[in-house]
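Appendix C reproduces, verbatim, an entry submitted by the partner laboratory led by Prof. M.T., so that reviewers can inspect both the input and the predicted structure.
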Amino acid sequence: MNVDGYNLSEREREEAKARAEAKIVAEVTADFERRREQRRSIESGWQLNMNFFSGNQYCDISPFGGVVEEDKRFYWQSRRVFNHIAPTVDARIAKLEKVRPCLSVRAFSDEEGDLKAAKLATGVLKYAQERIRFFETVSRATVWSEVCGSAFYKVTWDEQGGRQVAIAEDGTPIYEGEVSVHAVSPFEIFPDRLDAESVQELTSIIHAQVVTASAVLEKYGVEVRDEELSDWASVGYSEPSASGLPLKRIGLNALPERKGVILLERYTRPTGESPEGTLEIVAGGKLLYRGPLPFENGERGERVLPFVRQDCLRLPGAFFGGSVIDRLIPVQRAYNAVRNRKHEFLNRISMGVLTVEDGSVDTDELSEDGLQPGKVLVYRQGGKAPEMLDCGSVPNDFAEEEAWLEKEFSTISGVSELSENSTPMRVTSATGLQLLLSQDESRLSATTGSIKRAMKEIARQILRLYRQFAGNARLMTLTGENKKTQVYYFNAADLDVSDVQFDTQDTVSPEEKKATLLRLLEAGVLSDENGKTTEENKGRILEAFGFGSYENAKDISALHIAKAGEENLDMKTESVEVDSFDDHALHITEHTRFLLSAEFKRSTKKDELKPRYATHIEEHKKALRKEKRAEQVSDEPEKKEV
């Protein structure tokens, strides 16, 4: 009986657990439906933008929600599309693609600990962005933000990423883990507030995505069933028209035969009741996971929402940003109308409008065959012969309105004619063209600023995730100084990023860098006191222009500089002899640079090392003077002969 009582108690606990899980599932699902309904009008705007971008421009937002096709007013009405939105957005994306931010870290001070932490953090960021193909993710997110107004990055830790380090007893491979950054479309993001202006102001956020039942079973070990998702429009384009004619569909559509399950992930910030936050994952009416937020990605190690937002145009008092397509749609509608009416006018002039007297000709035959060349037109005797109606010529208003609307595209989008591969007729000087390019850059500064802010936040979260999960001995392969590949281990505890300043370098296009280098070279800034370009600067200039291998092949100055750097390290413990084949001038420069560096000044053995370095430098100077005297002696006979 005690056993039966124990079994009954166990069964009661299982039933109570099942009721609690069902309550959580119902609450998360109801919360998702509420947020989905609040965001429906915004989602319709995104669908309209995607239709106009893809060329399906005779559609509008229905009063009942969604995007529907606009029917023709007359059956003969021309409805061709002259898409200027797509090339305009393509030009903006092409300019933004040049903004390739290189994630780096600047030390907070010149202290040795800050310098080492900054150097390690920069190396980890460079290592991570190469492993996860970071720039491809940025490109996908930029397309989403340009078309819909906002895009999101989801920064998480993938336990199945990275290299394989071991095999479990059951034969399952064990991986070292890797940071993961995914571009997420705004269709999948459901915030708890639509008036919040940043992710930091949100209390919770739901990431909803469509997956298959097999994917849920593989990742969470819970069986669910696929369902028809006819009411789920993740990236829906326009629906069929009222006449029942199907429209061209592009991309992922909300088709009735699409099956799967909606995976809901609700992230909630830490509160007094839940100091570590809450993550609830629901799919197919079942609770897959409920627990604290898994990532310590906050500024002080707290657990926050793992999402970063990137906007095309910021809107005040709105969570989702605006797209430049929103502003271009009225201009595109007017442009299509002008071009189509113009073509209809030209058709009337070329084809003609025929006036006939009632009963004078066979109108059915005339309307069917028209007036083809050589046609014998027979009309009733005594009747009036058919004649062409004078339609006049195309008014100049069409051309003026068309030119004005084309100018409006450039004015609204911030992309000049020069960016669209057409040079303005009135601008002929190089200075004028450069000013136009500068204006384009300044008008895109709001978007580029959003990209750089997103990159900085992603860099912070990447380093915090490495510090949490990388462990005590993480292997990392990097290209270090002097183009040498360095393979070393680092401790995750060394990634103390609380006192570093993040920076996004390389935000200037390569063409602008090359032009700046040429101007500096012409101004003599890169030359020495004799007006000559040093071998070191020459190698750096050629490397900036992509000819670093050519410089190394024709000159060995880079190898001498690398050898001098190795000697600086060796002389910390012992004396180093000067070799006869050394480039003494380069060695003197490198050794002197080390003596003037902050690293040498902070050294505790400065008094002991200084005489050693000074003696070594003096040996180089003696050898250099000896070489110069030998050159002078070899030149004297030539001077006498002259």
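The chain is about 45% helix and 15% strand. Additional entries are available on request from the coordinating office.
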